[in-house]
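re: ur question from earlier - yeah i can do the single chain one, its not a big deal. heres the input i used so u can compare w yours
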Amino acid sequence: MFIRKLLGLQDADASKPDRDTETVRRIVQELGAMEPERARYLAAFAFILSRVAHADLHVSPEETRAMEAAVARWGGLSSAQSVLVVKIAQSQSSLFGPTQDFVVTRQFGALSTPAQREELLHCLFAVTASDDSISSQEEAVLRQIASELGLTDRDFLAIRSTYNHKRAVMKDFPGET
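and the output i got, formated as tokens:
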């Protein structure tokens, strides 16, 4: 049991505040006026958006704007607040992404409903498509996130199909534009 605790592998509920990652804690602090549970949800949401935008090791200005719009819309935040949340999420994702990706995604899964997880996947596709092309690296991360959130292949494929015209792999097929 001690080794599991030392490695952070305890079976504690991922949605409890004491299990928050540093990433989520930092964004929650910036959203101090918001109910803590809502801020935690939004922090994880923004981090996962950053995760997928950074999948191809480059976050375009279009992706950043799409992230800001999604955070403002789904978080009910002002433009200034959404810019701040996205900046923090991007910074935390580039600094700690590989070690935090699964943990934050799992936390979001614990904080959200199945419908909210599908909404997130739509937002993730919109972010990756915002620069007019969903790369194969981005698509692989999208599939990984969907799996980590417990979404089915059917859910993933249904949402992905609305973005087929933006998928890099589809752009090379005759008749596709």
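Residues 1-17 have pLDDT under 50 and may be disordered. not sure if urs matches, ping me
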